[in-house]
Input
Amino acid sequence: MQCEPLIAWCRERGIAYRRDEPLRRHTYTAIGGPADVALFPETGQIPALVQMLRSLSIPYLVLGKGSNLLVSDRGVRGAVLFTHRLRGSELNVREGRVRVSAGVPLQQALRIAADAGLAGMEGLAGVPGTVGGAVAGNAGSFGVEMKDVVASVTIVSADGAAREIPASAMGFHYRASLVPDHGIITDVRLSLHPDSPRTIHSRILEYRAQKRLSQPVASRSAGCAFKNPEGMSAGRLIDEAGCKGMRAGAIEVSPLHANFLINLGGGSANDYRMLMAQVSAKVYQRCGVVLQPEIRMVGEWSS
Ligand SMILES: Cc1cc2nc3c(=O)[nH]c(=O)nc-3n(C[C@H](O)[C@H](O)[C@H](O)COP(=O)(O)OP(=O)(O)OC[C@H]3O[C@@H](n4cnc5c(N)ncnc54)[C@H](O)[C@@H]3O)c2cc1C
Output
């Protein structure tokens, strides 16, 4: 893709970029081919950058910490816009409000809130990724979802305009929200309630410990590969279908938690996708349930 005019424009404005950036460096699976151009803007640079991408007809993908994505082996044509540099937070303890930038790691946001004696997010302890990624996918754990704590979200849309959207208009549902196509979440306002920092921190530690026991948190995965079907656990269905330990190339169904597919080292996106298809087929054969992917597949695929 012709990215030279974009590169020249970014250079003039001091927007950090890299050409042909291997995305496996930026994903939890350690899988993913190159992005034609990787962009690392700060919040104030995003509106003009989005307008420029649009005027040059360069497609773009937003990437947080890459903990819920499967990037194809061929990589991403066009631009990948990283949110690493969207950093910062503000507390209003009296009103139970925290404003946090989308690139802040979710676990850092939990710590900031806990230190200030603001509770409500502890169930999300141990969920990797950024605050923006958590909002986009309505991340949830131990009975808490982002929708329970988000008051409003600032989104820069494809026309470069920044708008504050109330949570009620975010269309939050199970592991999804209605962030418009090419919308970039830049800031999130959380609504929390008071509790003692000590109690909040101890709940966080407790949830984290539970996660470590039941999930392969230190392995290279993208979290749960499949959504839980209504009233059922995808992990249990996969386990009952006898899939634990199944492999495609260097990708394995975790023996600890069957809904996690792990890259044992040097695995490919094609193998990851193939193993997902094999697991789905086995679950369907055994119990007639069609599993839906939870991880997002992005980039250029051969078929
Ligand atoms: C070990 C492990 C455990 C996990 N446990 C859980 C769990 O318990 N519960 C759970 O819900 N998830 C879990 N996940 C999945 C993942 O951590 C979450 O979905 C996380 O919120 C994704 O954040 P991210 O920054 O990594 O997003 P990415 O993976 O970078 O992106 C995910 C999607 O969000 C979009 N996006 C990211 N940032 C923005 C932004 N600023 N604006 C607009 N769109 C954006 C991307 O375009 C992409 O479509 C787990 C993952 C791992 C590896």
